[in-house]
Every structure is written in structure tokens, then in C-alpha cells.
Amino acid sequence: MTARAVHTTHAPQSSAPSPGARRHVLTAVALAATVPYLALKAAWLSGSRIGIPDGSVLLEAGMFLTVANAVTLAMDACVILLVLVLTRPWGLRTPAWMLTVPVFTATGLLTPILLAFPGQLLVRALGFGTGPEEAAARVPFLDDWVFIVVYTGFTVQGLALAALFVPYARKRWGRRWQGVLGERLPSPTGVVAAAAASGALVLAAICVYWAFGGTAGLSAERVEAHSAQSAVGSVVSAMCALAAGAGAVLLAHGGALGARWPLGLAWVGAAATLAWGAWLLIASLGPELDAGEGTPVATQLIYAGQMVTGSLATAVLVRFLISRRES
After folding, report:
1. SS3 category, 256
2. Which residues, listed in sequence order, are joined to residue 258 by a DSSP beta bridge?
3. What's the rounded Cα separation, in Å, for the pair 161 and 216?
4. Distance, first Cα to last Cα, the chain
5. pLDDT by residue for the chain (327 residues), tens digit each?
């Protein structure tokens, strides 16, 4: 009788992390990214001057700064709740509006940072930032490291939240963006989309004009502070406005084009244009910390125009999603 060697075979093991493991990592990263900003805000609310240099206007801001710090601390703390909704089983039972409104707002506030911050770092690394003599002549607002820490945290938050939201949305509402755009939306929606596109073109032209050094509609302080880094921010604002207009037109027009990209353009562009228009307009209506001349009315009207354009594109986006639910 011959002995036979018995070999046990094993199924090949995948080296790729499981979806659950990726989700846990992204959750940890998103939560960790909130810590620097929350810690700074908590420190300032408790009276610390960390990151605030001597001579900064923030030292004389009083109650306005206290309220602003409290509000922005609460806003960033909401990221923690948002992460839990996107990762816990009970999150799938959350009413749609209670999730989409915060996610839309977060998309709008974080997208320009995700686009502009790396570009500004690159411009600075290439030597196109503010020159040393100009920098020395200005009283600093915050220490440079504060901007690096805070905006790095925002960038990581934005990427992690996007990576968590996409699979969540695919699981819950995947059919809304599957397939092609389909039939043209009713004509009133087309008019709204055309208005959004027209506003986007005007806003983009203004932002590009400012990026290349245009001064019309700007305060003297902002004209003096113009640099290659601020130009990057203006270009990003133009890109977001154009995305909102283009997305709105594509969604309203319908057709055989896949729905995913027009929907993404409308969502990101409308959110960024609306959120930053509102943020800048509210900030411009507050007290002038450095006793300057304040924000010109023309600039405030442009911020309002951003809000209107973003709102119009958002209306088209909502109408498209409703049509998908009805079909």
C-alpha cells in the first residue's frame, strides 16, 4: 500500500483591504482631521493667543471674534456627526434632507479649499507668493503655521468625507445617477438653467479679471493684498461657477449623456458657488476688524450674485433628482 501525500489547498487570499476596513480607516482619518481646527478654536475661546502674533487685529476683535469662533467650532464639530451618519447602520435611516443639506454645505465650503490650497502651496513653492519685503511690511493676521495646519486639516476632511459619502450615496440612491440623463426637463427648469449659466459666465469673467490684477469693485486693502496666491483663489471661484452653470444646463437639457458627470458638476459647482457667496457676504457685513474702508457695495453685489447663481443651479439639481424619484 503506497502512502499518498495529502495536500490541503487554500483559496487565494486577496491583499486588498475589505470595504469595511477602508471605511474604518477613512472614519479615523476624517475624525483626526477635525482635531487641529477644533483645538485651535477651543484654545482661542478659552483666551489663548496661540497662533495670533502681536499686533494682529484679532486681538482687538472682542465679542465678534468670540461669536465667530464659537460658530465655526460648532460647524467643524458637525463633521464628526456627519461621519457617524455615513458609517453607522442607523445612518441609512436618516431622513434624506437631514443628510443632504449638511453634505451639500460641506461640499460647498470644502471644495474651493481642496482646489485652491494645493495650488497656492505650489505657487508659493515656485516663488510666486508675496515677497519677503512685502510680507515684513504687513502686520500678520495669524502665524503662517496656522494656515498650513488648518487648511491641511480641511483638505483631509474633504477627501475623507467624499470617500465616505460616495459609497453611502451609491447604496442609498444609486439609481438616481445610473444610466443617461433621459428626457429634457420641463421648460421652466430650462429657463432657470439658462439663468444659472448666464450668471456663471458673468461671475467667471469677473473672477478671472480679478485673478489677473483687475481692481474694479475691490477695496484698497484687497487690491494691495493681491498676489499669485489670491489669484489662484479667484480662478477656483471661476471654475466652480462654470461647473454650476454647465451642470445645470446639462441636467435640464437631458439626452443620451451619462447622468453621473453632469450631476457631479451641478452638485459641486452649485454647492461651492452658493456656500462661498453666502460666507463671503456674511463676513463682509460684519464689523471691519482693521478699521479699513470695508467691503465695497459692488463686491457685496458680486457675492450676492454668487448666491443667486448657486441657488438657481441648485434648483435645477433638485428638480432633476425629483424627476428621477418619480420615474
Report:
1. strand
2. 180
3. 37
4. 71
5. 444 444 444 444 444 446 678 889 999 999 999 999 999 999 999 988 898 888 787 877 678 788 889 999 999 999 999 999 999 988 888 998 889 999 999 999 999 999 999 999 999 888 876 544 444 445 567 888 999 999 999 999 999 999 999 999 888 887 777 778 888 888 899 999 999 999 999 999 999 999 999 998 888 888 888 889 999 999 999 999 999 999 999 999 988 888 889 999 999 999 999 999 999 999 888 776 665 677 899 999 999 999 999 999 999 999 998 887 755
Domain boundaries of the chain, sorted by first residue: 21-174, 177-327
Residue 180 φ/ψ, nearest 5 degrees: -100, 175
Q: How many Cβ atoms are within 10 Å of 145's Cβ, its own excluded?
A: 9
Question: Is the Cβ–Cβ distance between 174 and 211 less than 8 Å?
Answer: no
CA atoms lying within 13 Å on the CB side of residue 275 = 20
Residue 190: what are its φ and ψ, rounded to 5°? -65, -40
Count other C-beta atoms under 10 Å from residue 218's C-beta: 18
User: For the chain, how many residues are written?
Assistant: 327
Q: Where are the alpha helices (DSSP H) in the chain?
A: 19-45, 63-87, 96-125, 132-137, 144-173, 187-211, 220-224, 228-253, 260-285, 297-326
State whether residue 257 is helix, strand or coil: strand
Q: Residues of 171-183 as b/e, b for ≥16 C-beta within 10 angstroms?
A: eeeeebbeeebee
Within 8 A by CB and 6+ apart from 126, the residues are none
